[in-house]
TrEMBL record:
This is Uncharacterized protein (DUF1330 family). The lineage of its organism: Bacteria, Bacillati, Actinomycetota, Actinomycetes, Propionibacteriales. It holds the Pfam family DUF1330. Residues 13-87 form the DUF1330 domain. It comes from Nocardioides marmoribigeumensis.
Length: 98
């Protein structure tokens, strides 16, 4: 799952709290793994407004595992941190070509 994130003013701290819960609790519980996380830089080729503050690539074993994670009542208790942190996000599922 490709995650493109744009933070609200001061939202990075809230997102970091969410990410810690995701990393330590929910990804291990549902078999997920962060493959890449990086801060965005000035785009080389993009339309205006297509720059992102952070990019993540997260592997889930199945789409069902992701769906079960976001439906988990304990996850629902921390998801507000993500919602408060972001003004825009794209979650783009992908399928490996090889």
């Amino acid at each position: 799952m490709l995650n493109l994130l744009r933070f609200a003013e001061g939202g990075r701290a809230s997102y970091d709290q969410y990410a810690e819960a995701l990393r330590t609790t929910f990804l291990p519980r549902y078999g997920g793994e962060v493959l890449y996380a990086g801060d965005g830089a000035t785009p080389l080729v993009a339309e205006h407004g297509q720059d992102w503050d952070m990019v993540l690539l997260v592997r889930y074993p199945t789409r069902r595992a992701f769906s079960e994670m976001v439906a988990d009542p304990a996850y629902q208790e921390v998801t507000h941190l993500r919602t408060e942190a972001l003004v825009e996000a794209v979650l783009q599922p992908t399928t490996p070509l090889v």
